[in-house]
């Protein structure tokens, strides 16, 4: 909350703009329009705001028209572009309902529960059915791990499912015949990093100082995506769980392993 109160149009970026709400935009605009460089930076402010909000100019200022916008969840207020130009705007935060709505800028501003909701609404083919680009975006903001097990083994007491849930992970279960794939998600701590991003360049060119974007890369994706539990504690059931993860090709994998062993023995 403190960070939101400190934000101004000058410090707003395409990443942190997702942290504010419609009324904050009206408030920040009213403050910024009193500054001497407001007109020079007005287009940049608009570009940043539009990255996270839908904006519609209300040309017919009548109560019945305003009510229609409010029924669509728009917040309505006045925006001054200059002394002689007073416009009424409808502003609404862009919804994150589909996988394609996820971006590096907004991924840190949704909860794990919201991510699971988006995944559940959009696909049923499992984690590997997502494109690599979407996986990268999700993993920049969340620790993701998966396991695929027979239905009667997934919820075995003390197994991977229980451990992940007890550790604060949200879970999505996807039925695949007699098997179930479980996708576990937990938000990573938010860390400020400086990247050469279009938003950063725009901000610096307009004299806004250094800004940041969220991680554009996951430095150790293999570690974050497939987090093994306590390797030192050997457990046959646990080994079986993790060997089933995100694949139906168990027999093929075992055959390959058998060939490798044969080659080594020879």
Rg calc: 24 Å
The total count of strands amounts to 6
DSSP strand (E) fraction? 15-25%
Quaternary state reads: single chain
Task: Based on Cα principal axes, name the global outline.
Answer: elongated
- Helix percentage: 40-55%
Order of helices and strands: HHHEHEEHHEHHEEHHHH
Spans with pLDDT under 50 lasting ≥5 residues? Answer: 193-266
**Average residue-wise pLDDT:** 77
N-end to C-end Cα span? 65 Å
- Strands ordered across the widest β-sheet: 1-3-2
Observed structural traits:
single chain; 266 residues; alpha+beta; three-stranded antiparallel sheet; 12 helices; 6 strands; 18% strand; elongated; disordered C terminus
Describe the structure.
Helix content is 40%, strand content 18%. The protein contains 12 helices and 6 strands. A 3-stranded antiparallel beta sheet has the order 1-3-2. A 3-stranded antiparallel beta sheet has the order 4-6-5, sandwiched between helices. A hairpin with a 2-residue loop joins strand 5 (170-176) and strand 6 (179-187).
Give the SSE map:
Blueprint: H1 2-6, H2 22-32, H3 38-50, E1 53-57, H4 63-71, E2 75-82, E3 85-93, H5 112-122, H6 132-141, E4 142-150, H7 151-154, H8 160-166, E5 170-176, E6 179-187, H9 198-205, H10 221-225, H11 236-243, H12 250-265
Antiparallel strand pairs: 1-3, 2-3, 4-6, 5-6
What is the compact description of this entry?
The chain is of the alpha+beta class and 266 residues long. The chain has helices at 2-6, 22-32, 38-50, 63-71, 112-122, 132-141, 151-154, 160-166, 198-205, 221-225, 236-243, 250-265; strands at 53-57, 75-82, 85-93, 142-150, 170-176, 179-187. A 3-stranded antiparallel β-sheet has the order 1-3-2.
